[in-house]
Amino acid sequence: MRLLVTGGAGYVGSVCAAHLVETGHEVVVLDDLSTGHRDAVPPDCKFVEGELGEAAGDVLAEGFDGVLHFAARSLVGESVERPELYWNGNVVASFRLLEAIRAHGTPRLVFSSTAATYGEPEQVPIPESAPVRPTNPYGASKLAIDHMISSYAAAHGLAATSLRYFNVAGAHGAYGERHAVETHLIPLVLQVAAGTRESISVYGDDWPTPDGTCVRDYIHVDDLADAHRLALTHATAGRHDVYNLGSGHGFSVREVIEACRAVTGHPIPAVTAPRRAGDPAVLVASSARAAEHLGWTPSRTDLHRIVGDAWTFAQGGHGRP
């Protein structure tokens, strides 16, 4: 298939673009490089630098079999402080993308959604039927896009899928995680091992969990890419399907730190800090629907494997091999 990957210079987008190329697809990457990196775009992809809402129409006019939409702002704290960036950069830009998809008859869309649409969970593991009550503008912006996609599928016959990620980690060879503002636990812990950070903060050690620290569901970015390829082939015209992507098993903050210590051989000092407001004790996905309908089950669930791939990427430099 000929596919457009928006945000393909970012972490998940670049890994998915690499997977698509490796499996024989023709890929065009559209990215404004506001947070992505030009050298993260796989060399066999055509690259178009441009703002999503402005450039999508011109690009899609060339004819595509599908769009994988990753381009978004994704910092929860920033979304609280500057919500206008998220309503414009996520919602308005995605509306313009949907209009371009409709105008040019692009038949398929796979959207990068998030577990943040659920907010505080009422049950764990979290199924897709759980109430969606996002607690910040980032999650709300993603949920708004999901609603837009549903309406376009119903009205215009779009074959659409939203994939709600939990905690993505790991790397795919030369394609991995590097953010100007890092907020994810595993890369932050590895920064301590690399000597660029003195210690890692553990926000609360009295949570109602086995070791007192928060538990999260980590999914290898390669497993995530597999799900996107399956979603492309299983999408049905006139339908918008939503799937959670996670391992169904959580690891605590202490378990992640211990895994990083084991992989890196570094002591990694940890400092207990007060709980952060709004942090759920446990976030774990139910991915039963993805298993049933997409035939997807994650195969790279070992925490040491996930950390090891991220550490190899962090040590080996960035960009192409």
TrEMBL record:
Cite the CDD domains for this sequence: UDP_G4E_1_SDR_e
Cofactors required: NAD(+)
Q: What protein name applies here?
A: UDP-glucose 4-epimerase
Q: In which pathway does it act?
A: Carbohydrate metabolism; galactose metabolism
Question: Mind telling me which Gene3D superfamilies this protein's record contains?
Answer: NAD(P)-binding Rossmann-like Domain, UDP-galactose 4-epimerase, domain 1
Family to which the UniProt record says this protein belongs = Belongs to the NAD(P)-dependent epimerase/dehydratase family.
Q: Report the PANTHER family cross-referenced here.
A: UDP-ARABINOSE 4-EPIMERASE 1, UDP-GLUCOSE 4-EPIMERASE
Reaction catalysed by this chain? UDP-alpha-D-glucose = UDP-alpha-D-galactose
GO MF term (any one):
UDP-glucose 4-epimerase activity
Keyword terms, alphabetized: Carbohydrate metabolism, Isomerase, NAD
Phylogenetic placement of the source organism: Bacteria, Bacillati, Actinomycetota, Actinomycetes, Pseudonocardiales
List residues of the NAD-dependent epimerase/dehydratase domain: 4-246
What EC number(s) would the UniProt record show? 5.1.3.2
What's the top EC group for this one? isomerase
Q: Set out the biological process GO terms recorded for this chain's protein.
A: galactose catabolic process via UDP-galactose, Leloir pathway
Pfam families annotated for this entry? Epimerase
User: Which species does this protein come from?
Assistant: Pseudonocardia endophytica
Q: Which PROSITE patterns match?
A: ADH_SHORT
NCBIfam families reported in the protein's UniProt record: galE
